[in-house]
Amino acid sequence: MEQRSDREYRRDFYRAVDIQHGTDERAQAYYVPIYERAGMRDYDHVPRMRDEIDFSVAQSVQWFSGFRGCGKTSELVRLRHELEAEGYRVAFMDVEDYFNTLLPMETAILPHALAAGFAHAIDHDLNGPPMRRYWEFLKRIRFTGKGTLDVDGGVVKAGVEIAPYLKDDPTFAAEAKEIFNHNRRTFRAEFHAFFADILATLDATEPVVFIVDSIDHFRGIGETFEQVRASVEATFIELAADLQIPNLHIIYTIPIYLEVGSGSLRHVVNVKLHDRAGAVYEPGYAALQDVIARRAPGADPSRLMSEECWRELLTLSGGTFRDLLRLTRLILVDAKSLPVDASAVQRAAANLRDNYTTVLTREHLDILRQVRDTHMLFTDQARKGDEMQLITMGAILRYPNAQTTWFDVHPLLKPLL
To answer: 75 with 182, same domain?
Structure first.
């Protein structure tokens, strides 16, 4: 095989780290089973989630939460593959297809998104029976869609993509809200009947699991954070009974700030690189080294920089896959020749750090100092919003211990304190 030039090496490496962990088939080629490593197995949620589904009779609800960039979607894809290998049918939807997650969540729209997302995940044919049952659901709740879909007038035909209406059409949202608020009991019954209608057409020997990903992406920006957070909390309080769907195993990926009252809640933590006392945790470093080696051309990350530089970059990532890949991308673009030196790592770190400095307030910095010194949160009502915002943006990270978890400030931000 012809040797890559330095530029070709950087290009191919960049393309590999530009693909985020997710549902994209290309991303699965880069998946690294870090939880198979000694020292990491105790933090693996997939076997527990699979067992809860397998042990439950007919239906179950699980909530999956975690910090940005900790690999939640990758583990859900792994869960999907393991369930399918055991004879389950898995429907996987991404909420971001139906919502702008920077805006407040509309309570009345979420059931429509779940119904349409389930129909599409079960049968990707927009002309197929599942999507036609969604249109029948609209008619049963007397949704007319005047000015948009015109359901009663017969303008809706098979093959119409519903996601743009749910995401962007204020007329659709207004009518959905009116119908939702008019008779909650009837709406819930019809919503559950929609799922029952589809499940009745499927093979009864193939239990169905519905994975709803990316609800955790509802986070708002700056001053809108609190408004978005409050809307998500209000939605899940209002829909508590609706979201437990009869005869269906369902997993919701939710924001860290969301408190749920039923079902099993599982938190994914960041990869631990040191313990609470500061001692180095080598299994964590080894796991992240595997992630980089899988993506490096020829499995050779040393061509980009030395082992010492990589060690520093892994430390600066805080054990988050997202920042590990972002830092690597910045170095690859900035490199003038290979290998790069330690200054390249520091420039990449400074670049990412700048993204935080524009939004951190004096109150935020006070909270970060306390977390750095105590490894605990001090959540009270007056500070809850600020703490949740810091956690959601990734400024505060969560790590595992044998019995519990602890918190720390993202390594990138410690120079600011």
So the answer is: yes
Do 200 and 147 fall within a single domain?
yes
Question: 361: buried, middle or exposed (CB in 10 Å: 19+, 13-18, 0-12)?
Answer: exposed
Nearest to 74 by CA among 29, 17, 42: 29
Identify whether the C-beta of residue 360 lies closer than 8 Å to the C-beta of residue 395: yes
Please tell me what DSSP assigns to residue 251.
E
Angstrom distance (rounded) from CA 203 to CA 89:
9
pLDDT at residue 13, as a whole number = 96
Q: Would you say 49 and 64 are in contact if contact means Cβ atoms under 8 Å apart?
A: yes
Question: Could you tell me which of 65, 312, 8, 328 has the C-alpha nearest to residue 213?
Answer: 65
Q: Strand 249-254 vs strand 89-94: parallel, antiparallel, or unpaired? A: unpaired
Contacts of 264 (CB under 8 A, 6+ apart): 52, 60, 61, 62, 63
Range of the domain at 234: 41-268
Instruction: Check whether residue 352 and residue 367 sit in a common domain.
Output: no
| Mean pLDDT, all residues of the chain | 89
Closest CA to 110 of 192, 183, 215: 215
Q: 11 pLDDT exceeds 80?
A: yes
Going from the C-alpha of 190 to that of each of 97, 195, 384, the distances in angstroms are 23, 9, 37
Which one-letter amino acid corresponds to residue 34?
Answer: I
pLDDT in tens, 218-251: 887 777 888 999 999 999 999 999 999 999 999 9
- 51 and 135, same domain (yes or no): yes
